[in-house]
Amino acid sequence: MKKEEKCALIFGSVHKTLEAEQCLAAGSWPFLLIPVPPKISQGCGLAIQIDPINQSAVGLFLNEHGILIEKTVVME
Predict the structure, then answer these.
(1) pLDDT classification of 76: cutoffs 50, 70, 90
(2) Which residues contact 7 (CB under 8 A, 6 or more apart)?
(3) DSSP per residue, 52-72
(4) What is residue 37's predicted lDDT score, i.e. its pLDDT?
(5) I need a surface site. Which of 18, 22, 51, 73 has the fewest CB within 10 A?
(6) Under DSSP, is residue 12 helix (H, G, I), strand (E, B) or coil?
(7) Do 44 and 12 meet the contact criterion of CB atoms below 8 Å apart?
(8) How far is CA 15 from CA 3, 11, 32, 70, in A?
(9) What is the pLDDT of residues 3-46, one digit of tens each?
(10) What are the DSSP E strand ranges found in the chain?
(11) CB-based contacts of 64: which residues, under 8 Å, 6+ apart?
């Protein structure tokens, strides 16, 4: 059985990650605050995990609020 894929959103700082978390809490997408996956050497140590189906909408929402995602990584 294949595991369900998730996306990790990587930001440039802990501050930006927590700002994104606060912003997403006001939205309607499920998300989790997670440690940056070990295979990624970029970022601040924290990431936000979302479903890949929501990636475009979440990216646009955060961009509209002045929060830029540095990198998106699909995880299994």
Answers:
(1) confident
(2) 49, 50, 51, 52, 55, 72, 73, 74, 75
(3) GGGHHHHHHHHHHTT---SEE
(4) 81
(5) 22
(6) coil
(7) yes
(8) 31, 9, 16, 13
(9) 688 999 999 999 999 999 999 999 899 999 999 888 776 667 89
(10) 6-10, 32-35, 46-50, 71-75
(11) none
Closest listed residue to residue 59, CA positions, set 25, 24, 12: 24
Q: What is the pLDDT, as a whole number, of residue 16?
A: 94
State how far the Cα of 16 lies from the Cα of 12, in Å rounded to an integer: 7
Q: How confident is the model at residue 1 (pLDDT cuts 50, 70, 90)?
A: very low
The amino acid present at 22, given as its one-letter code, is Q
Q: Quickly count: other Cβ atoms within 10 Å of residue 75's Cβ.
A: 16
Q: Give me the half-sphere count of Cα atoms (radius 13 Å) on the Cβ side of residue 57.
A: 11
Tokens standing for residue 57: 């909408």
Angle between helices 14-25 and 55-64 (to 10 degrees): 110
